[in-house]
Write a structure and sequence with these properties.
By secondary structure, this protein is α/β, with parallel strands linked by helices. It has helices at about 25-45, 65-75, 80-95, 105-115, and strands at about 5-10, 50-55, 125-130.
């Protein structure tokens, strides 16, 4: 990429790198290291046309996550309506400003943008896609 004068590196981490959970400490440590690696690599590739970024999703509505929340809904008596389950589950354990989880295609769209020519001025960033779960400036 350096020789070609163009390239994109996009690593996938998690917002858990900012606020790790009590399960799987090794997972959160490894994901936090990705953001640090991206910053170091972006600095090493400064001026080469290669950008390096990290994307850190919050909770994503995958089949596994949805199944887990539906199981919780059955235990709690929340009914079967997904929108209702999602709102209650998030309010209970993972609140964010938009009141829903990211969809896989939203995360993919962000990665595709960062990998495009249009993102040439974005480098050394750790971009959260978490619906505003971790609000700070």
């Amino acid at each position: 990429m350096r020789q070609a004068g163009w390239g994109r590196v996009v690593q996938l981490a998690t917002v858990g790198a900012y606020r790790p959970g009590d399960r799987m400490p090794q997972y959160y440590a490894a994901k936090a290291a990705l953001a640090s690696t991206s910053l170091s690599l972006a600095q090493a590739l400064a001026g080469t046309g290669v950008t390096v970024n990290t994307v850190s999703p919050g909770l994503i509505r995958t089949l596994e996550v949805e199944a887990s929340f539906r199981a919780k809904a059955r235990r709690q008596g929340w009914g079967d309506d997904w929108d209702h389950i999602e709102a209650l589950a998030l309010a209970d354990t993972h609140p964010n400003l938009i009141g829903r989880m990211a969809r896989p295609e939203e995360v993919a769209d962000l990665v595709l943008f960062l990998a495009s020519n249009r993102a040439a001025c974005i480098t050394a960033q750790n971009i959260r896609i978490d619906g505003g779960a971790l609000v700070h400036y």
